[in-house]
Specification:
The protein has a five-stranded mixed sheet with strand order 4-3-5-14-6, with helices on both faces. Strands 10-9-11-7-12 form a five-stranded mixed sheet, sandwiched between helices. A two-stranded antiparallel sheet has the order 1-2. The longest helix has 28 residues. With about 300 residues, it is an alpha/beta fold. The protein has ten helices and 14 strands. It is about 40% helix and about 20% strand. A hairpin with a 4-residue loop joins β1 and β2. The protein is elongated and about 70 Å long.
Length: about 300
């Protein structure tokens, strides 16, 4: 099917903005030209792509299906343009990273600081999502590389993780509310206490649930949140025992202690992942080199 790229471009901007007038502004064409382009595309595809009313514009199921394919294509085109501009520039370009809030705060900041010092003209864009959702950012072309927790159920076998750090997950509790310091507990015994965990859409929660299943136990958290920092805060005031990566626990915290477990939990990795099928932009290659250098404290 021979369809002009410009028609897909117009479709993309209308789908993103859900507004014919806003799309016309971003494309620098008239609103009637936008409307006519969509009509032509719908006729060529023999599918209705948008539901129009006086108040709003919505994608039809067919439009949503098309958009899921057009969006990554547009991102790839934009990425190619950026790489060409970067190659012809003087040390400019853009570094686009996807990572969770926890990884950004407790691991990436010193690496980003070093990269910024060494490449001050490169723009840095960090998109925060869970490690699972970061894989989608990479596949859609919205970022050049991601730094994620591993194992990761969303990561396909076509992507090769490059391990940059190893860490342990621990249970932490308040000394004031849980007099368990020095005791060795089993996962079964922990079931009788209120457990605070990340929500099920996180690699950390997936990992903990798999550990309980391996011991033929059911894990029913008292509280599930999207922030490790908030889990630690709630553990500190005695709302329960939090399960968090060890690298985000404040050093020498006087209120909290790490529980001793009878079962030995496997250590996990932090991994940098890029799309193997595409050339990595220069800025991303330079940042990858920094990530794989000795740990920055």
């Amino acid at each position: 099917m021979d369809i002009n790229y410009e028609l897909y471009k117009v479709f993309y901007y209308v789908a993103v903005t859900l507004s014919f007038s806003e799309a016309s502004k971003q494309l620098f064409i008239s609103q009637s030209a936008v409307s006519q382009s969509i009509k032509v595309l719908e006729k060529k595809l023999n599918q209705k792509l948008f539901l129009r009313s006086t108040k709003k514009v919505q994608l039809t199921p067919e439009g949503e299906l098309l958009f899921r394919h057009i969006e990554p294509a547009m991102n790839l085109i934009r990425q190619g343009e950026n790489q060409l501009l970067e190659a012809g520039g003087q040390g400019g370009g853009q570094l686009r990273i996807g990572a969770s809030d926890t990884i950004c705060r407790y691991y990436l900041v010193p690496y980003l600081s070093r990269f910024h010092r060494e490449h001050p003209h490169v723009r840095i864009k960090v998109t925060n999502q869970t490690s699972i959702l970061c894989v989608g950012l990479l596949d859609q072309g919205l970022v050049d590389l991601i730094v994620i927790n591993y194992p990761n159920s969303a990561l396909p076998s076509t992507h090769t993780p490059r391990f940059i750090n190893e860490f342990s997950d621990v249970f932490v509790a308040s000394r004031e509310f849980y007099p368990l310091e020095g005791q060795v507990l089993t996962l079964s015994q922990l079931q009788s206490y209120p457990l605070l965990t990340l929500d099920r859409k996180s690699t950390t929660s997936e990992f903990l649930h798999s550990m309980f299943r391996r011991c033929h136990l059911d894990l029913v958290p008292e509280i599930e949140l999207s922030s490790n920092d908030l889990l630690i805060d709630l553990a500190r005031i005695g709302l329960g025992i939090a399960f968090v990566p060890d690298f985000c626990i404040p050093a020498q915290d006087r209120d909290l202690f790490v529980l001793q477990l009878k079962e030995e939990l496997p250590r996990r990795h932090m991994a940098a992942v890029c799309k193997e099928s595409l050339p990595l932009p220069q800025a991303a290659r330079q940042f990858m080199d920094i990530l794989q250098s000795p740990r920055i404290l």
